[in-house]
């Protein structure tokens, strides 16, 4: 097969894939939304779980003590202190420990590298929460794989399985800027990086222009205030009569 034939085959495959670009974009958007929902639900469920197992017992103990609940109050705050040496120290450390664990869990459970996330019962809970989301994500990814494979482009990395990337890669090869998929992807990465840098620079320029406008407005306001003071001072000086 000649280089020309290889380019033509690649163009035909890309043209076929371009027709399904919108479907790939829709699936990718659904996958992204599912990941966000999965993360939010996981964090909220874990925080609620640790809220119940940490502050729950604390509020329960305070409620028993404040309301003088029959049977429980005499046992916990009457009998146990007489049976267990250092009961009140243990009780205080227990309550403080639960409160500290509560704050620690609220601040760290959002990170996957959190120590609490490595606990086996927490891992099982995470798997249970995320299983339904992961099933839907796998289905969408398999659908994307089928679309790409049907165009004989199974080697195309997932990162470029969206309409914009496919269209740009097609243009590079069609315009003879690239002879292979690998080279076209390299050109796409270069252009994409330059575009991101240009957007970042535009944002910085916008902030700088906004700062200059505020400085000019402040300077104009200061000059105007100074002029008013001069006018008021001149009016306050009595005129000499001749």
Mean pLDDT: 86
Helix-strand topology string: HHHHHHH
Number of domains: 2
Structural class designation:
mainly alpha
Give the low-confidence spans. Answer: 1-5
Query: What percentage of amino acids are in beta strands?
Result: under 5%
Q: Estimate percent helicity.
A: over 70%
Question: What is the CA-CA span between the terminal residues?
Answer: 110 Å
Computed CA radius of gyration, to the nearest angstrom = 34 Å
> Sheet with the most strands?
none
Shape: flat
Q: How many DSSP-defined strands?
A: 0
Number of helices: 7
Describe, in plain words, how this protein is organized in 3D.
Keywords: Coiled coil, Membrane, Transmembrane, Transmembrane helix. With about 240 residues, the protein is mainly alpha-helical. It folds into two domains: about 20-150, no CATH class; about 165-240. It contains seven helices and no strands. It has helices at about 5-20, 20-65, 70-85, 85-110, 120-150, 165-175, 180-235. α6 (about 165-175) crosses α7. The longest helix has about 55 residues, at about 180-235. It starts with a helix and ends in a 6-residue tail after the last helix. The model is unreliable at about 1-5 (pLDDT under 50).
């Amino acid at each position: 097969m000649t280089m020309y034939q290889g380019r033509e085959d690649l163009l035909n495959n890309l043209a076929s894939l371009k027709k399904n670009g919108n479907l790939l974009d829709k699936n990718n958007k659904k996958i992204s939304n599912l990941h966000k929902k999965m993360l939010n639900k996981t964090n909220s469920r874990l925080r609620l779980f640790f809220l119940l197992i940490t502050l729950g017992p604390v509020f329960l103990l305070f409620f028993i003590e404040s309301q003088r609940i029959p049977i429980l109050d005499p046992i916990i705050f009457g009998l146990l202190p007489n049976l267990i040496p250092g009961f009140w120290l243990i009780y205080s450390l227990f309550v403080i420990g639960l409160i500290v664990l509560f704050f620690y869990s609220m601040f760290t459970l959002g990170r996957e590298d959190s120590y609490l996330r490595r606990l086996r019962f927490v891992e099982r809970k995470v798997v249970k929460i995320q299983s339904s989301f992961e099933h839907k994500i796998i289905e969408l990814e398999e659908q994307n794989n089928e679309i790409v494979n049907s165009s004989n482009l199974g080697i195309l990395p997932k990162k470029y399985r969206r309409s914009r990337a496919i269209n740009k890669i097609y243009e590079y090869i069609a315009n003879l800027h690239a002879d292979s998929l690998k080279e076209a992807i390299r050109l796409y990465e270069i252009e994409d990086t330059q575009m991101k840098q240009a957007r970042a620079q535009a944002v910085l320029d916008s902030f700088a222009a906004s700062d200059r406008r505020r400085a000019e407005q402040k300077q104009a306001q200061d000059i105007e205030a100074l002029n008013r003071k001069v006018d008021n001072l001149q009016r306050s000086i009595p005129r000499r009569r001749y």
